[in-house]
Amino acid sequence: MTVRADLDLLTIGHSNLPADRFMALVQDAGVTAVADVRSVPFSRRFPWFSDPKLAARLQGADIAYLPFGDVLGGRPRDPALYCDGVADYEKMAATTPFRAGLDRLDEAMGRFRLCLMCAEREPLDCHRCLLVARALAERGSALGHILSNGTIEPHADTEERLLGRAGGADDLFGGRADRLAQAYRHRARKVAAHLQA
To answer: Which residue of 31, 84, 145, 146 could cross-link 26, Cys pair, CB 3.0 to 4.6 Å?
Structure first.
């Protein structure tokens, strides 16, 4: 993998990766800090991704571990941030804590080669892409998603895949920006967390 100097930050989904493979992917990308955006930084099935073990392993490789799940996680505690029982990413993105979390990420990007981490392998199945990366891109950040095969997909290419899944081309009633917003909304409704009863 070639380190992409043109990207402000990266994302990765740990999924079921072996710990050594995950470490190789972030090290090959030149990552110096992992920003964990999981609401619950714990994995029963893959305990090496639970925050104390992951933090220790990253520290051993001189990579900082930064917990951000409290403000940038995809499972909000506030029931008002759900619509019909599904987490509403647009409402979440408008909250003061979320915007403050983005400000903290901006500050961390000035100090580290930062990589957002969540659980889902596919960026389009995860709030790290559909919520956090979208908001950062709207702020002007250049992002890339580390895929499990080691390639780094620019966020603009990920958005093109999102549009492709949504189908259709520009029409008389809406341009690319409108279609992209609708595609984000539709995908988020499919993959976002559900309110726990």
So the answer is: 31
Whether the CB-CB separation of 95 and 43 falls below 8 Å is answered with: no
Identify the CATH number of the domain in which residue 24 sits.
Answer: 3.90.190
Indicate whether 40 belongs to any domain.
yes
- Nearest 5°: the CA angle 166, 191, 92 is 100
3-state helix, strand, coil in the chain (%, to 5): 45, 15, 35
Look at residues 93, 101, 100 and name the one whose alpha carbon lies nearest to residue 135.
93
Q: 0.85 cut: is pTM over it?
A: yes
| Least confident among 21-30, 124-133, 174-183 | 174-183
| Nearest alpha carbon to residue 30 among 105, 107, 102, 112 | 112
What is the dihedral sign for C-alpha 100, 104, 105, 109? Answer: positive
